[in-house]
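Session log. Operator J.P. requested a structure for one protein chain; no other inputs attached. Running the standard single-chain path with token output.
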Amino acid sequence: MQRLAALTVFAMLFETISALADTPVHRKLSPVPFTEVKFSDVFWAPRLETNRTKSLPHNFKWCEQTGRVSNFAKAAGLMPGAFEGIYFNDSDVYKVLEGASYSLAQHPDPVLEKMVDDVIAKIAAAQQEDGYLNTYYTLVEPDQKWTNLPVRHELYCAGHLFEAAAAHHRATGKRTLLDVATRFADLIDRIFGPEKRYGVPGHEEIELALVKLYEVTGQRRYFDLARFFLDIRGDASKRKIAGAYCQDHMPVRQQSEIVGHAVRAMYLYAGVADVAAYTGDQGFVDAMDRLWQDVVLRKLYITAGIGARHQGEAFGEPYELPNDTAYCETCAAIGLALWSHRMNLMHADARYADVLERAYYNGILSGIGMDGEHFFYVNPLASGGTHHRQPFYPCACCPTNVVRILPSLPGYVYAQDGHSVYVNLYVAGSAEVPLGNRTVKIVQETRYPWEGEVKVTILPGETATFDLRLRIPGWCEGGKLAVNGQPVEPLQVEKGYAVVRRQWAPGDSVQLRLSMEIRRIEAHPKVEADRGRVAIQRGPIVYAFEAVDNGGPVGRIILARDPQLSAEHRPDLLGGVTVVRGLDRDRKPVVAVPYYGWDHREAGEMAVWVGQEGKSRQPVIEDPSWEGRLYRPLDPATLGD
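Structure written below.
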């Protein structure tokens, strides 16, 4: 009884400490937590339901069948046997747990919750007395812990544990996984730091995860450890650096060009943005701004895929964006979304949310099939018909990653700064937005992304004065706004957000209409693979041409000078999609479907970029009109003979 009382007092003290975590005052926006946002739309709600009922159980099953879960039981001595799989397999289990936690916040599910609790019990049993937890080292190389940080991913696996623990605690209120995570984090903090051991992970992840652990627990040492790992990265004065492959070639504050393994880079810079949000470190902020510009102006696919090269899963040279050999790992698009979200919070600028949206609707969603049980690791922008989704992979980072990023989407829809509510994404549903000393309920009604009409109803409880800021997407040339049916003219737009300032009464509504024209997009002339070609985009959706819709090979499609593009919603196709119809230069019909939906029917060719009649394939030496852009809508007047 005395022990129980002591534990109760400790828990109360811990929760008090948790409430004292610093506010990230250098971040202009605060996200509305995923626990406060509910979806009821026609696009994402069904996908999240498939994720809950199909994808998460599927991934748990594969983690069981491939020994990922039993590795913990073996490490705990609960069963005999050797370690199975790759040395970083623990991380896959943690990612599935994180995704399940987000899902439980949206939809209570006793069956899923039991799966989660059973796996957590095995993880807790595998933890060693000093807090150490890594089944590979426990079972294979118990005397070699912390001896191969660049390769063996101990800190990477720990980071995914910390992320899962933070999500699980926020979603369920339980401390079972959080207690495991804090014990391990305390051990790492005793080993690494100033005047202790100097070292950084080869695969970044623990940096952003330690910040999350700090935010959940209020324990400043976790944040300080994250900052330590970032401060010494690329610094050769006290340790041997690992090179550009893992962004360990120069100090972060000096970096200007994005290089190396794409996923690692994204996780690193997400962590840098998190630390800068609390410290205001201008060196970090300036580096993030430079690196962001390098990505979006020279190394970003139209689908928000990143990482052009198979070798090293890495970024290539500026404008090196091949289509059929594009790597575009699903995890890399996920990492880009994580970084974009943080950049949006830092700067309160809609251009970062534009990239977040592009990633979710294209580069991420393509990574998981409509059935929720087949996955892409690589996402090319052209295929000869032999590239297909798989139920799992020996290196399963992408399947387990996509099932955690999808149910985390509710946490990216809204943000606030104390006197304004920001709407970053358009998804039907409701949210409880903390704003100053009150909570404002917001309800969205929309059929986005297929339609551009959005109705936002404000329910503040009582009359309240604040700004409502609605993102006008970068792809939208025109937006119209009305409040309670009365047009708002002229439209006031600040950093990509339409601003409505007023005293809100319960039930007030805003009607936003976004133009949804079909656009032919051209790439910068320095992108050799796309010269003479265009891609199709409508709203946030990038389109692809498949052989099954076009009577055979699509690599030879050349659109007419005026292809007479039109949109048609097909509720019977691919779960309900809007297709784009048009004409090629021979006046034959062509059809394009959303890129995320390709490879669900007959095997065959696929192409995002197709030929355009009148568009030259010759390089352009200098064209100042491309300043500050990598992609832009095609101006038909520029087409030649």
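Operator note: The domain at 415-448+452-514 is CATH 2.60.40 (Immunoglobulin-like).
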